[in-house]
């Protein structure tokens, strides 16, 4: 600074605030908010703003503006952008010089397009280049001097400040790029780990019931095709495991498999997660980011809970299904991908279409081949295998012996309806193992209250006196289920057989074998 120029107390405070920004690069917005308010106060102006330069798209993009009335104002959801050959900013970038304009109406370089969009009237300004050794970052504006004209001193102060601000912005950008790179590496690591998994075969879907055999038949038909699949079933039935089995046993097994829960994120975050975003698309988007569709290119994307997607997002998904194209958030270039889409939902999408909550055209696009995982109450003969599988899994995890389930405890497990399906049974087995400690027997006392209350003393005594063989327990459960189905169907054997997943003759055989009166 000029030797004859001494800093005022306010100017010194301003320099200190900007210097401190080096230590706050994690919160760029807060840093800019403080600097802008200081500049507005010291320079006696109506507002200050920064427009960053996007060399890829040859544009300037406003990231924040502070005005005297209303305080901090970030441009709307759609960022304010203008071509880098327009306006004062374009001239400042080309000439690498500060522009001081006391009356913009008399200056042919001024571009009033931004004023028209933001309902703001620019009268005068200082526009300073923000540049580091690496690159041109953008421009800093001081807008509308309230009294008098901008002075050479104010120009000089802003030029000195601009160097520190430019370095702070560059540090924030580099920090963001590093974070995005680490995040990208973590995601790629998870994808590689998924691809290296060997436990994505049919053997990992446990069950030999008729309902499960029917599902296996459908999976075998669709696995070797690129057909779009809809997994429609209750929560907890293992839809993501089924999606992985389809992917890792088909022709795309060496390609990426990525999954996203469509009901876990708000629209703006879900759109960015699926389609990515370009730098400057929103506050914090300081680098380009790939979306899951781009990462999954050539492979499979699993959209869990697709029924939770808003109508706005459904339109964007439909375009990918129809044309294989999408546009990143804030971008103006279309990307082309080739992915297999597997969707899942616990909703009845046909009813959602009738109620206007789900687009009919999208429904037919994702419902090319439907697979319905059966609820656990419809495959109770699989409960013992599932329970033993989970006990083995968690016993190994905590280095405990695998306990044996007593006949009465198994009887209670078979009676329960399991509204949470396989996931609820898994949680129950993990809890029971913790309750049992190192004991070799898992009896009913270690089960949760909701299951134990189904029992009675007569059943307990009868089962505990039995041989405890699996065959005896299964027969008792089958007999009870047949009786309950006949009662529920008012003795109609055809309806009872259908409810049990049996043929009519199969039901008659069990009625005879168990001496059931109808």
Characterise this structure:
- By secondary structure, this protein is α/β, with parallel strands linked by helices.
- The protein has three domains: 9-175, GAF domain (Beta-Lactamase), CATH 3.30.450; 201-371, P-loop containing nucleotide triphosphate hydrolases (Rossmann fold); 376-513, Helicase, Ruva Protein, domain 3 (Orthogonal Bundle), CATH 1.10.8.
- The chain has 20 helices and 16 strands.
- The strands form four sheets. Strands 1, 2, 3, 4, 5, 6 and 7 form a seven-stranded antiparallel β-sheet that branches. It has a five-stranded parallel β-sheet with strand order 9-10-13-8-14.
- α10 packs across α12 and α18 crosses α19 (493-500).
- It is elongated, with a radius of gyration of 33 Å.
- The protein starts with 8 loop residues before the first helix and ends in a 5-residue tail after the last helix.
- Residues 68-78 have low confidence and may be disordered.
Overall 3D form? elongated
The fold-level CATH name of the largest domain is Rossmann fold
- Rg over CA atoms, rounded to whole Å, is 33 Å
Q: Work out the strand percent.
A: 5-15%
Head-to-tail CA distance between termini: 104 Å
The number of helical runs is 20
Query: CATH H level of the largest domain: which superfamily?
Result: P-loop containing nucleotide triphosphate hydrolases
| CATH architectural name of the largest domain | 3-Layer(aba) Sandwich
Q: List low-confidence stretches.
A: 68-78
